[in-house]
Specification:
FAS1 domain, elongated, 11 helices, 4-stranded mixed β-sheet, 7-stranded mixed β-sheet, Adhesion/Biosynth-related, 411 residues, disordered C terminus, binds 2-acetamido-2-deoxy-beta-D-glucopyranose, alpha+beta
Length: 411
């Protein structure tokens, strides 16, 4: 399903006093002490390969990394990463379990705020703008941490441990790579009021023949109205001519930019694939996106997909205008000026450089993971937004107070 994973390298040119083999040996001992024998074996098998050494070298060179280390039972049977006897598959898998920052509970914001952190993973089939790596969205769970996936949570099990620059969290599963934007819609996205939010939008995509367009947008932000929003305007939409309905869909996609909530600043505007604008604003009631005189409330953002990120909103923008040349221009502009992992502020763990690894063997498509429990009727809102701080200030806050910003998932 994916090929040519590319590992982000941080500080590759730094020469460490400790030799890599000493570092790796220490790391292996740390895994053994934490009862993570498969991690020990996994590291042993990758450390005799070039690409494994490169990944381990990067870990050593980084100031701080956190590993979500699958417990022994989680290594079988082979999941979407393929047979984990193969060192390449192990490196691919680990590259998505490792973030380049220190995710220790005491450094993280109070739930339900979450932290968005860069992993080491990117590949040709996971195309994000500006060579960005895929992110993990992590929340403090007290005890431990929870990694938020669209429709399930992966929790840490047992105590955190430390070795050198590494923070180790044992987990009861392997974090699967993000699936594509369309696949996410067909899952039950977990959000507070418990309905299936995206099924209605999928219907609109197929009735406008824009399913492929949606799925084929790479490095994009997808505003997806929840079901009750779609139901509220379904009649109106049915009455539109085809080209107007298509315009409505295109005006919910931003081509060439992944918008994570921690990066949003009051007054930001984005040009849609329809060539119209969406602006961001917030007030005491919540965070909103504005289009065509309509305000849509942010319901849940930061749902990573293999081709971008989904933001759930509570209103369908009935923007039927289009401006193709504006849209094309914006998409090109977005790509030309895409923030890289180094310049993307508000996300924990900056990435400085990338390195190509050899191709992996192919992997199976991830399957749906179980059912979703949500707290029905919860209408709790939380809006914590890091404001527009320059990166260097943000970084110093990071070291003093907490990890990162974050935001708003609410009904
Ligand atoms: C995984 O690969 C190893 C070594 O190639 C092989 O012995 C093992 O049977 C494979 N496991 C599965 C479940 O395919
Ligand atoms: C995942 O965790 C969050 C809070 O940490 C919770 O609100 C949500 O319901 C959980 N989702 C599932 C599917 O358990
Ligand atoms: C991570 O943060 C914790 C808590 O502040 C600290 O004890 C630990 O030494 C840090 N680890 C690294 C590698 O920075
Ligand atoms: C919208 O209306 C169409 C036609 O009446 C119907 O088939 C569809 O189920 C409705 N969709 C939603 C999400 O209400
Ligand atoms: C996104 O922009 C690229 C050009 O940068 C274009 O080729 C592609 O068709 C656009 N996709 C969508 C869904 O707008
Ligand atoms: C915040 O903005 C939204 C959208 O414009 C509006 O509906 C809401 O009443 C505003 N809330 C406050 C407290 O001003």
């Amino acid at each position: 399903m994916f090929s040519r994973p590319i590992i982000a390298v941080v500080g590759l040119t730094l020469v460490s006093a400790e030799s890599l083999s000493d570092y790796v040996e220490g790391l292996q001992n740390a895994f053994t002490s934490a009862g993570l024998n498969r991690m020990f074996q996994g590291i042993a098998s990758i450390s005799s390969t070039d690409f494994g050494q490169r990944m381990l070298g990067q870990m050593q060179a980084d100031d701080e990394v956190t590993i979500f280390a699958p417990m022994d039972d989680a290594w079988d049977p082979p999941g979407p990463y393929g047979n984990l006897s193969d060192p390449q598959n192990i490196v691919t898998m680990l590259s998505y379990q490792i973030v380049t920052t220190n995710l220790t509970a005491s450094r993280m914001p109070d739930p339900p705020s979450h932290t968005i952190a860069f992993t080491l993973f990117r590949s040709a089939d996971h195309t994000l703008p500006g060579d960005q790596t895929q992110v993990l969205v992590v929340e403090r769970a007290d005890p431990g941490l929870v990694v938020r996936k669209p429709d399930y949570n992966l929790t840490t099990t047992g105590d955190v441990s430390f070795y050198s620059n590494v923070v180790i969290w044992p987990t009861d599963g392997i974090i699967q790579l993000p699936i594509d934007s369309l696949d996410v819609l067909s899952h039950i996205i977990d959000y507070p009021d418990g309905t299936i939010p995206a099924a209605g939008w999928e219907q609109i995509l197929s009735s406008t023949d824009l399913t492929g367009y949606f799925e084929g947008c790479f490095g994009c932000t997808f505003f997806v109205p929840i079901d009750r929003a779609v139901e509220a305007v379904n009649g109106t939409l049915q009455g539109y001519k085809d080209n107007f309905r298509r315009a409505v869909v295109k005006n919910h996609i931003i081509n060439g930019t992944t918008i994570y909530t921690s990066q949003l600043h009051e007054g930001d505007t984005f040009v849609t694939s329809g060539g119209e604008t969406i602006a961001y604003a917030s007030n005491d009631t919540g965070s909103y996106f504005l289009s065509h005189g309509q305000a849509a409330r942010l319901v849940r953002g930061d749902i990573p997909t293999s081709n971008g990120v989904i933001i759930l909103i509570d209103t369908v923008f009935l923007e039927t205008n289009t401006d193709t040349s504006n849209a094309d221009h914006a998409a090109e502009d977005n790509r030309d000026n895409a923030p890289t992992g180094t310049s993307l502020s508000g996300i924990a763990g900056q990435i400085q450089q990338t390195l190509t690894l050899p191709a992996t063997s192919s992997v199976a498509t991830p399957t749906s993971t179980g059912s979703t429990t949500v707290s029905a009727g919860s209408d709790q809102s939380s809006a914590i937004c890091l404001s527009a701080l320059p990166l260097y200030i943000w970084m110093s806050i990071l070291t003093i107070v907490t990890m990162s910003s974050v935001n708003v998932w609410e009904a």
